[in-house]
């Protein structure tokens, strides 16, 4: 071990980079997190990985079944938000998140003892 190290060019940040991943902060219900942790533990994986996979499946399923919202007629010019994201992109994302939240709630309800499982 050296007696002195040079940190003059050091940068703060994650110890290991995750290519293809973006760190975000998201608020989820405690029971959703608990259900995800339990399911992830039984599957031998991490709960964040499980949530990522569930979201991916929901998006793929939506695409495969053509459940995406129909394009709306526009009467005004579309002005993009930051990074080219449009208002319609945000509204579409809100709808997708609502659908995924509903699916997560169904999973939580199904995993609770004493709760009747909802038939789909």
From TrEMBL:
Source taxonomy lineage? Bacteria, Pseudomonadati, Pseudomonadota, Gammaproteobacteria, Pseudomonadales
Q: Which InterPro entries match?
A: BrnA_antitoxin
- Which top-level group of life is the source organism from? Bacteria
Protein's recorded name:
Uncharacterized protein
Pfam families per UniProt: BrnA_antitoxin
């Amino acid at each position: 071990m050296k007696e002195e190290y040079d940190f003059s060019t050091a940068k703060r940040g994650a110890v290991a980079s995750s290519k293809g991943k973006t760190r975000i902060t998201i608020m989820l219900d405690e029971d959703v997190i608990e259900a995800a942790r339990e399911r992830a533990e039984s599957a031998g994986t991490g709960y964040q990985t499980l949530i990522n996979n569930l979201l991916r499946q929901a998006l793929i399923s939506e695409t495969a079944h053509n459940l995406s919202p129909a394009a709306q007629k526009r009467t005004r010019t579309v002005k993009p938000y930051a990074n080219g994201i449009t208002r319609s992109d945000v509204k579409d994302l809100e709808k997708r998140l609502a659908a995924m939240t509903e699916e997560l709630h169904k999973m939580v309800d199904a995993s609770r003892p004493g709760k009747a499982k909802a038939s789909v």
